[in-house]
Structures are given as structure tokens and as C-alpha cells.
Amino acid sequence: MSRRPYRSRKNRRLALVIGGLAFLGIAVALVLTAFQDSVVFFFSPTDLAAKEIGPDRRVRVGGLVEEGSVTRGPGDGEIRFLVTDGNTTLPIRYVGVLPDLFREGQGVVAQGRLAGGTFEADEVLAKHDENYMPPEVADALKKQGHWEPGKPMPGSGS
């Protein structure tokens, strides 16, 4: 009986390693596909205006609540306000109770969907003290040139 060279121990081990890597690659692809719907990206109002975001895609938008922009609806818990990064202003509509620390001129992050030019928020997060701003908001303001480290944050009252 002749021995076949492609059935050597080395070739079987190589085939097993390649098969294992292929299996691992498929598993990673399936996990990433499953989590794709639950991943929420952060945008500044300028970034959001420049991108084509579908109405079914959940995103976070952050910036400063514009002074004098908060209006409340008649009894249904609707609140409308404007968020700005200094360059672009985005109208936001939210139905619910705002965080206690929500104020005009303060940093805010809203999560929801963009619908017809208005951001329909289902969650609103406000900064929790005078020296803190969500990192995403601070980065967006720095990128737009509206805040520098060492200087007071816009709307912090300092």
C-alpha cells in the first residue's frame, strides 16, 4: 500500500487550523451582524446634517441646549428644544420627563431617530455637575473650535 503525501500529519494539522480559523471568522461575522442593530453612534448636529441617516437608524446627538429654545407642549409631556454645536442647530422633540439637571446652555446628549429634520428623542441625558460634559459633546465642541481645555465650558456659569 502506498502512502499518500496529502494525508500526512502536517497537512491534517494545517487543514484543521484553516478550518478552525474559517469557523471563527464566520462566528465573528454572525455576532457583528447581530449587534449591528443595537449599536448607537454619536453625532454632533453638524455631523448629523452632513450624513445621510435613515429614519429607522438610532443615533445619539449631543451639544449645548440653546438659550431660550425650550418649549413645552400642552399637557402631553412634549418638550421641544434646540441643540447646537456652535455651527449647526438641530431641533429636538422629546416626550417624557427631562432629567433634573437639564438646563438651557448646558451640555446634553439625546438618543433617538431623525425624522423630517427634527430629532425624535426617546432618551435625554444631561450633565451631572458644573464641571462635567459628556465626552462626546466636549469632543464635538472642541472639534468645532467652540471650547478649549482650561477654559470654562460654555453654559457652565464659570
UniProtKB/TrEMBL annotation:
Extracellular compartment residues: 35-158
Similarity-based family: Belongs to the CcmE/CycJ family.
Any matching Pfam family: CcmE
The protein's name: Cytochrome c-type biogenesis protein CcmE
Source organism, top-level taxon: Bacteria
Swiss-Prot/TrEMBL keywords: Cell membrane, Cytochrome c-type biogenesis, Heme, Iron, Membrane, Metal-binding, Signal-anchor, Transmembrane, Transmembrane helix
Gene3D superfamilies: Nucleic acid-binding proteins
Subcellular location: Cell inner membrane; Cell membrane
Cytoplasmic compartment residues: 1-13
GO cellular component: plasma membrane
Any GO BP: cytochrome complex assembly
Topology class, membrane: Single-pass type II membrane protein
Entries under SUPFAM superfamilies matching the protein: Heme chaperone CcmE (SSF82093)
Family annotation (InterPro entries): CcmE, CcmE-like_sf, NA-bd_OB-fold
Residues given in the record as heme binding sites: 128, 132
Protein role: Heme chaperone required for the biogenesis of c-type cytochromes. Transiently binds heme delivered by CcmC and transfers the heme to apo-cytochromes in a process facilitated by CcmF and CcmH.
GO molecular function: heme binding; metal ion binding
